[in-house]
Amino acid sequence: MHRLTAMMLPLLLAIPAVAQDEIADGATDLGSGTASYYGDELAGNRTASGERFDPDDLTAAHRTLAFGSRVRVTNLANGQSVVVRINDRGPFSRGRVIDVSHAAAREIGMDRAGLARVSMTLLDNETELAAADNAAGAAAVGAAD
């Protein structure tokens, strides 16, 4: 038993830090920090991914995540969350971890304050993405009623 433990310990220590933050459902915890949102005056400008910025889309800018990545952003003050797609680089303001679109800011109740303390979770699992899409669809149906 001790021999097995001695052989496994180096392997466990070699697991990358990102993998250690993996949440049970297949998503990855990206930590927390301050979020801000893009102003509507940037509508139509090209993002770093090449697409045009639309403040009504649920998109965001992150310094390092791959374009197309889906991230659940949760406002720590009220527990509201939204799933955004990374399509730009930034934020470039010191102390900020993510810039979200105006639509995403409204979804999590930070559009009036402009800033919010948030946690972020990278959704890299098809089950998580399907659940997020279903939640978004249900919210849209509820808003239409």
TrEMBL record:
Residues 33-119 form the RlpA-like protein double-psi beta-barrel domain. InterPro entries: RlpA (IPR034718), RlpA-like_DPBB (IPR009009), RlpA-like_sf (IPR036908), RplA (IPR012997). Its EC number is 4.2.2.-. One of its GO terms (biological process) is peptidoglycan metabolic process. It comes from the Bacteria. Residues 1-19 form the signal peptide. SUPFAM superfamilies: Barwin-like endoglucanases. GO terms for molecular function: lytic endotransglycosylase activity. Pfam families: DPBB_1. Keywords: Cell wall biogenesis/degradation, Lipoprotein, Lyase, Signal. Belongs to the RlpA family. PANTHER family: ENDOLYTIC PEPTIDOGLYCAN TRANSGLYCOSYLASE RLPA, ENDOLYTIC PEPTIDOGLYCAN TRANSGLYCOSYLASE RLPA-RELATED. Lytic transglycosylase with a strong preference for naked glycan strands that lack stem peptides. This is Endolytic peptidoglycan transglycosylase RlpA. It comes from Sphingopyxis indica.
